[in-house]
Amino acid sequence: MNHFEIVNKDKNCAARRAVLTTAHGKVQTPTFMPVGTAGAVKGITPQQLEKIGAEIMLANTYHLMLRPTVEVVEKLGGLHKFTGWKKPMLTDSGGYQVFSLNSLVKIDEDGVEFASHVDGKKMYLNAELATQIQNRLGADIIMCFDQCAPFPCNDCEMEKIVQRTIRWAKRSKEAHANNKQLLFGIVQGGINLSLREECAEKLIEMDFDGYAIGGLSVGEGHENMAKTVSHTADILPKQKPRYLMGAGMPADIIAAVKGGIDMFDCVLPSRNGRNAFAFTENGIVRLRNNVHIDSREPIEAGCDCYCCRNFGRGTIRHFFNVGEMLGPILVSLHNLRFYQRLMAKIRNALEKNEFAEWADEKLKNDSFNKAQDKC
Amino acid sequence: MNHFEIVNKDKNCAARRAVLTTAHGKVQTPTFMPVGTAGAVKGITPQQLEKIGAEIMLANTYHLMLRPTVEVVEKLGGLHKFTGWKKPMLTDSGGYQVFSLNSLVKIDEDGVEFASHVDGKKMYLNAELATQIQNRLGADIIMCFDQCAPFPCNDCEMEKIVQRTIRWAKRSKEAHANNKQLLFGIVQGGINLSLREECAEKLIEMDFDGYAIGGLSVGEGHENMAKTVSHTADILPKQKPRYLMGAGMPADIIAAVKGGIDMFDCVLPSRNGRNAFAFTENGIVRLRNNVHIDSREPIEAGCDCYCCRNFGRGTIRHFFNVGEMLGPILVSLHNLRFYQRLMAKIRNALEKNEFAEWADEKLKNDSFNKAQDKC
C-alpha cells in the first residue's frame, strides 16, 4: 500500500489534497507541523496541541541528542512515550542546527564536528550517525543528513554542497534500519534552479519515501522562495509527499501549496506567541500594545480557539505586562490554531476545486498580506 | 435561603461536610482554592483548573489594584470575564500583601500608606477603599480589611492589632455595597487564644456571611496552628463558613478540617510545582533530581491527573533541565490535582462518617508526613 494517497488534484495549479499514512496514524495534507524542539511545543501540552487540530509534530534531533540524549529517550520508551504525543512525529536530521547554532563547525566529506551550544562539548554527526539516532528516537518520518548552505552562497560553493548532500543522502538511505519509519531525502541548491534540478534527480533515483526542499526561508524573500519551490516540486515524483522545511509565513505556505507542497513546519506561531505577536487574517496584533489595555475584543473575532473564546485582548495584554505565563501560553494557542485553521481552509478549497482562485485572492489581499509583516 | 448548608457533621470532631452557595454557583466544602494572584493560576488555564476539580479560585486585590487596576478590570467586565474563570471567586482584601510585600508602610487608625512593590508609587488602602475595590472587582466572596501581625508579636502589640482589626471590620461591613457578594470577617490574634476569642466575639456581633482565621501559617508551626484553629473555630457560628487563610501543607489542612474549617487557599501547589517539587502521598518528589533521568514512572502511581497519565518522571526532569515551560506546567497541574484529590478524600470520609479516624491515621502516618517536609 502506498503511504501517500492523493485525494484531489487542483486543476489550475500544482496543489494537491492527500492523505499521508504513518506508523502512528494518518495525516491530512497539506499539513502544518508545530515544532517541539526539545520534545515539547513551548508551553503547550500534547492534549492542547491535539485539540488545536495538529496531526503531526516535529522534534529536533540535534536538541534531543544533546539533552536528554538518545539513550535516555530510548529508555523512556521512544519519542512518543517521551513527549506524550501519540500521533505522527517527524524528526529533522540535526544538520540544520549543527550549522545554525554553532560557530565551531569543522566539516569534511565524512561529516561534521561541532561544539555543543549547551556546554561546548565536542560532538560529531554524519549521515550514518544522524540516521541511527533518528532510528532510535523513533519518529514516524525521519530526514537524511544534509549540508545546509549559508545565504547568500555562490554557485561554486553551492554545487559542492549539493554534491555532498547527494552523497550523504545515499549514505543515510543505506544506514536506515527501521522499516516503521519513512525516510525523506532533502533537495538543496539554494535559489539556483539547475542545481535544485540536479539534486532532485539524483535523490529521485535513490527512491525516498518523500522529498523535502531544504535551504529556503533563509532570507531569499517570498518571490525567490515561491519560484524555487514550484520549480523544484514540479520535478519531484507526484506520488510522494513533498515537504518545505522551516516555512513559514502564511503567504509563503499558500504559495508553496500552489507550487505542490504538502507539508510544512515553522517555529513562528509558537515563537511569535511567546512574544505577544498574534496572527490574524487582518495582520499581526501586537498584544503588549497599550491600545489593548481595556479591550474586551478577542484576538481575532470568529476564531474558535480557547484563547479567543475566553479572553479579551485586555486580559492578555495584562498577562504579558505582569509576566504571567498564561500570556505566552494563550497567544501560542491562538497562533497554532490560526495555522491549523489556515491549513483547513487550504484543504477545504482543494476539496471544492477552488484552491487556485482562493490562493490568488489571499495572496493579493492587502489586509491578509499585512499579516506577512516581519515580526 | 442560607448560603451555607451543612450536609454532614462528624460525630468525633468538629469537621463538617457542607455546600456553600455563591452568585457563581455552589462549592462543596471542605474546599481548597487555588491562588490566581494576578488573575491567573501561574501557567494553568481556567479550563485546566476546572478539569482538576477546582470549584473556587482566589485572586489578590493588592496585585490587581496595582496592575491592571480596578478601573481596567471593571472595563474588562469584572473579575470573571477578566480571568476567564466562570465559577466562584474570592478576593482577599489586600491587607496581607500591603504588609508582607512592602517595607515602606505607614499605618494609622484610618488605614495604610505603602509604596507599590512594582514601581514604588505611593498608594493608600483602608477599610472603605479595600471594600469598594472588591465590590468593583466583583468576586463572589470578599474579605474585610484587616491588620496582619508580624510573627512573633507580643501580646500588647497583638491586642492593638486585634482592636484595630475589629474597628476596620465594622467599617468594611458598613462600606460593603454589593449584595451579590458575601463578606467575610477575619479573626486575628496570633496564637493568643483569649485575643482570638475576643476578636471572634466582636466580629460575630457584626454578623458576617462567613469568618476567616488570618495570621496563621506564618511560622508558628503545625501544633500551634492546629490548636489556635480548633479553639477559634469552636467559637464561630456553626451555620457560617469558616476559612483558614493561606494554609497550607496537607497535614495542616487535615488538622484544620478536624478543627472545623471549611475553606483553604495556598500558593504551595503551584509555587512548588514551578520549582519541580511534587506532592505525593509518600512525600515530596524532587523532579530535578538526577535519579529520575530515565524513569518512566509517573510522579504518583494511581494519580488521575493529566501529567501522571501521560508523562514519566524522566520527561518532566528533562523539561526542567532544558527550561521547557511544560515542566512547571505539568508539575503545577499534578500538585493542584493532588490538593483537589486530598479535599475529595476528606469530603468522602466525612460523608461516610469516617473522617476523624481517617484524619488521625493520616496525621500519624510516617510516609504521609514526609510530604510535610519544608520544600
Give the assembly state of these chains.
Answer: homodimer
Q: What's the overall average pLDDT of chain A, rounded?
A: 95
Strand order in the sheet with the most strands of chain A: 4-14-13-12-11-10-6-5
The Rg value of chain A, from CA coordinates, equals 20 Å
Task: Please name the fourth-level CATH homologous superfamily of the largest domain in chain A.
Answer: Queuine tRNA-ribosyltransferase-like
The CATH topology of the largest domain in chain A is TIM Barrel
Structure class of chain A: alpha/beta
In total, the number of strands of chain A is 16
- Major beta-sheet overview of chain A: 8 strands, parallel
* CATH architectural label of the largest domain in chain A: Alpha-Beta Barrel
Task: Calculate the terminal CA-CA distance of chain A, rounded to whole Å.
Answer: 43 Å
Q: Work out the helicity level of chain A.
A: 40-55%
Overall domain count of chain A: 2
Uncertain segments of chain A: none
Shape of chain A: globular
Task: Summarize the largest interface: chains and residue counts.
Answer: A-B, 40 and 40 residues
Alpha plus pi helix count of chain A? 16
CATH class of the largest domain in chain A: Alpha Beta
- Give the percentage of residues in beta strands of chain A: 15-25%
